[in-house]
User: What shape does this take?
Amino acid sequence: MSRMTDFGNGLYTGAKSFDFVGKSKLWYVISAVIMVIAALGLVVQGLNLSLEFTGGSEFKVATSQSVPGNFESRATGAVREVAGAGASANVTSLGDSTVRVQTEELSSNESRAVSQELAKTFDVQTNKVSSNFIGPSWGASVTKQALRALVIFLLFTGLVMAAYYRNWKMAVASLVALAHDMLITVGIYTWSGFEVSPATMIGFLTVLGYSLYDTVVVFDHVKENTQAAFTNRRSTYGDAANLAVNQTLVRSINTTVIAVLPIIAVLVIGFAKLGPGTLLDLSLALFIGMTIGAVSSVFIATPLLVDLRRKDADVVALDKAASKHATRTAAAEPAPVAAGVGAKGAAPTSATEPAGTTGGGTPPSHGSTTGPPSGDDAQTVTGRKVHKYAQGGPRNQPKRTPRKQRGR
Assistant: This one.
């Protein structure tokens, strides 16, 4: 635990740092490969739209015992006994004792006959077989509303972020990260072969919210650090933004892990016990989207923002000023002193001298402190000045009262 704490503190102060911004081209290439694979899923595999979007008839058979191993062939055979040899059926199990059969649109008489045939095939009462018909117009209406909600969400998000950060390039970077997350989420979901149901659409829209949340958290630190850099002129825009990503890295990992753990539990239970259904569709979409959203906020959004602002006049001026400051600082640093050789006119310091003493074993004066330097040198990584009363060691302790005085 202490190592994790030290690791997080090191990232926050800048003692440890990962170069996320400097390796932006590598992240872009990796992201492009993943997006191509996801897009191929949409082209090759195609979306497996559920009955709510395509329309058709659905039958659910509640068996008295566990679902038999050959339930798919038995259910398909029952449908073809009524609808003909060319009829297709999508057969799945819901839990341990329910069989779901989805077919193309059937007439009332055909639906009744299929229900009777399914009851006969699985040896249950007719009232144990429920039938439902969904028209394609309902699915078209759901699709239309979902696309409308998506467009409104993206427009509103772009306007709000541009107004909040007072920089439209931050809004563009966040929207690109959202599009990146959505494409990968839909593509991976397509490769899994799961149905795209209304619950899946809800999951996709929820993923946008989580992805935006992660990006906003990182961008808040980027805004804070870059404003400090513009003030003290000691750090480039890219360095300040990279520090912000490192400062939020541990938080992003912790938040994502905590949010994904219950979703993983639902996925395991869904795969092992429940089978296809609303809960499994929603959980899979959330698991993929939340994981990709956390990754994009670190590896895509901030590096893209720095690349978009690289040629801005104020950023170029800041980078030049930071470079000059680094050069002056390097030139002003004193040359290293050889071991055992003191300053001019001072006696050499013994290697065995205890900490807190000066040359010759004389302790420091009462007014001296071991705290950080004052003035321009007393700066943190983000450029904030250290308080003048801050000390590097423990606080001054009260003077001890002699025993004779305490006895009085």
